[in-house]
Write a structure and sequence with these properties.
By secondary structure, the chain is mainly α. It has one domain: Cytochrome Bc1 Complex, Chain D, domain 2 (Orthogonal Bundle). It has helices spanning 3-25, 29-44, 54-57, 80-83, 97-107, 119-131; strands at residues 66-67, 73-74, 86-88, 93-95. Strands 1-2 form a two-stranded antiparallel sheet. A two-stranded antiparallel ribbon has the order 3-4. A hairpin with a 4-residue loop joins β3 (86-88) and β4 (93-95). The protein is globular, with a radius of gyration of 15 Å. Keywords: Heme, Iron, Metal-binding, Oxidoreductase, Signal. Its EC number is 1.8.2.-.
Length: 144
């Protein structure tokens, strides 16, 4: 077994355990509050862009299949947090969920991406992560 496999297995065990605990106990009220803020941003914020918002493409709060502005079908976000980080060959680097969110805001919404460490990016990340509650970790996996 390689060091990478051991780390991935250990990370899966730790995150899998966290998901079971979080599912059984429900979200902490403060964490739930931030997730709700993220859902509101997801549904209504244009980020000073082209007038669209996350839900313009990721329909039904991100839980159903969506469509890009060019009409191409896109999968739901229900396992997005479980498949990041991911290596993107076109970019030649590893992308995190926050990188992906910022990229969507900047490109699809043509808006000003929330800064790393900002309340907005944190809230969006918490919301998208909440959609993957209970999903198995599959770093580098395929969207569903």
């Amino acid at each position: 077994m390689t060091g990478r496999t051991n780390i991935k297995g250990l990370l899966g065990l730790v995150l899998g355990s966290w998901m079971v605990v979080a599912q059984g106990a429900g979200l902490d009220p403060e964490l739930d509050k931030v997730a709700q803020q993220g859902k509101d941003l997801f549904s209504h914020a244009t980020f000073d862009g082209n007038g669209a918002f996350c839900e313009s493409c990721h329909r039904n709060g991100g839980v159903g299949p969506g469509r890009r502005p060019d009409g191409q079908a896109i999968p739901s976000l229900t396992n997005a947090a479980a498949i990041f980080p991911r290596y993107k060959a076109k970019a030649g680097r590893v992308f995190t969920l926050q990188d992906q969110i910022r990229g969507c805001v900047g490109m699809a919404l043509q808006g000003k991406a929330p800064a790393y460490g900002s309340d907005e990016l944190t809230a969006l990340t918490v919301y998208v992560t909440s959609l993957a509650q209970g999903k198995p970790l599959d770093m580098g996996g395929k969207p569903q």
